[in-house]
């Protein structure tokens, strides 16, 4: 029997930091019905997502991108997984216990995303901000696929997700990824696939899991037309590529520059 139940983990007292946006009234935003992707084409803001496995440099490039955008007069909002008011703290607690089933975890992550979409992402886009996403729905889909879920089912779970204005996939091979992960704190239980792979050695499990995950990301990138960026290069070169494409995406935003 699980030592946790989902109801106790949703909306626990350990709330994530506020984003500065409150959910707008229904007449100002498209309500999330789950029937189809939310249309954000008329919103003045831009939705930009960075995807890639842990240790590839997402946080570094998110920080650089935010600094560059704000320096050039753009309002910037940020959203990441496990930061929703409704489910963020509960997800973190669930991962500490390693007790919930795969489908329950899939739905937990989807709840986290839906809450952030309604409370953080849509209001910021409506207000004309550039919303930077540290992983979007594709990370959750890739992780779920690797763990054996039905690809059609998990993609249908996220059918309400708006199409971003740009998705950047930071691509790396396992050989270059491993030293980065080791130097930044070592192998994580979940990012090594220890929750489902039959491996006794965490290093072997990490290599096996990451190869499978990177393959899943590559397939999603090809299907959805991500901007694939070679993240094996120095930070300056990687960011230069991202910045050049982001400049095109935000360049048409009315009144965005100071």
What topology does this entry show?
Layout: H1 6-9, E1 46-51, H2 58-71, E2 76-80, H3 88-97, H4 102-126, E3 130-134, H5 137-146, H6 151-157, E4 166-171, H7 174-183, H8 202-224, E5 227-230, H9 235-250
Parallel strand pairs: 1-3, 1-4, 2-3, 4-5
Helix pairs in contact: 2-9, 5-8
Describe the structure in your own words.
Residues 1-18 and 25-29 have low confidence and may be disordered. It is built from nine helices and five strands, in the order αβαβααβααβααβα. It is globular. Helix 2 crosses helix 9 (235-250) and helix 5 (137-146) crosses helix 8 (202-224). The protein has helices at residues 6-9, 58-71, 88-97, 102-126, 137-146, 151-157, 174-183, 202-224, 235-250, and strands at 46-51, 76-80, 130-134, 166-171, 227-230. It is α/β, with parallel strands linked by helices and 258 residues long. It has a single domain, classed as 3-Layer(aba) Sandwich (Rossmann fold), CATH 3.40.50.300. Strands 2-3-1-4-5 form a five-stranded parallel β-sheet, sandwiched between helices. Helix content is 46%, strand content 10%.
């Amino acid at each position: 029997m699980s030592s946790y139940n989902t109801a106790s983990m949703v909306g626990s007292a350990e709330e994530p930091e506020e984003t500065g946006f409150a959910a707008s009234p229904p007449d100002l935003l498209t309500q999330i019905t789950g029937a189809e992707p939310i249309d954000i084409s008329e919103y003045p803001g831009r939705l930009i997502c960075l995807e890639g496995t842990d240790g590839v440099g997402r946080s570094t490039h998110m920080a650089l991108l935010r600094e560059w955008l704000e320096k050039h007069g753009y309002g910037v909002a940020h959203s990441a997984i496990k930061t929703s008011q409704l489910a963020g703290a509960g997800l973190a607690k669930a991962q500490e216990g390693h007790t919930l089933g795969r489908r329950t975890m899939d739905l937990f992550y989807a709840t986290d995303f839906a809450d952030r979409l309604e409370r953080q992402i849509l209001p910021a886009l409506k207000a004309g901000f550039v919303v930077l996403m540290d992983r979007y729905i594709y990370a959750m889909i890739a992780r779920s696929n690797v763990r054996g879920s039905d690809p059609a089912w998990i993609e249908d779970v996220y059918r309400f997700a708006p199409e971003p204005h740009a998705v950047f996939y930071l691509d790396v091979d396992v050989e270059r990824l491993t030293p980065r992960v080791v130097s930044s704190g070592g192998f994580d239980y979940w990012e090594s696939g220890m929750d489902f792979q039959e491996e006794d050695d965490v290093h072997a499990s990490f290599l096996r899991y990451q190869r499978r995950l990177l393959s899943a990301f590559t397939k999603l990138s090809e299907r959805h037309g991500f901007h694939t960026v070679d993240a094996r290069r120095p930070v300056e070169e990687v960011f230069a590529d991202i910045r050049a494409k982001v400049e095109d995406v935000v360049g048409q935003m009315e009144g965005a520059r100071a």
